[in-house]
Description:
Blueprint: E1 15-19, E2 25-29, E3 35-38
Antiparallel strand pairs: 1-2, 2-3
Amino acid sequence: MFKPVAHYVMNELIFIVESAPEGGYTARALGASIYTEADNDRG
């Protein structure tokens, strides 16, 4: 019986991180629909 094998492709994501005009930071991925923002750079 044939069992499918999962194949994983690892891609590199490059983010542009910038200071936001209202304070904090924004980050967006190049070539992907990923966007986030934060108040500061401390987790």
